[in-house]
Amino acid sequence: MKSQVEGQETGMGQGHFSHGQFPSMQGEIADDSLRALASRVAAYARKTPQEIVSVHMDNNCYFLGDTLWYKAYVLRDGKMTPSDISGVLYAELINQDGYMVERQTILPIAVILTCC
Fold this sequence. Notes:
6 strands; alpha+beta; 116 residues; disordered N terminus; two-stranded antiparallel sheet
């Protein structure tokens, strides 16, 4: 597929537009909108606690019938301490076709120790 961009043929069907093709006012509006969006996203991230899930597995390749051993950690972002935000971690095993084979519900260790 060929396209015509800035008077030159390109054989890949791709092209680019030079900045000079758009009025500068349009670029300023786009920059201001992007800055406003980035500011709102940053404010949301500061207000909303974030978590990091880290999973360690005993192997990187498994075959039918293998036992998969793993450890999962849910940590507070920034503090890197065990999280008290989420109460449950769902671990799902997905096959090569994208279908869920198994789901496990994992309670945090603190909940398990205090419940018994």
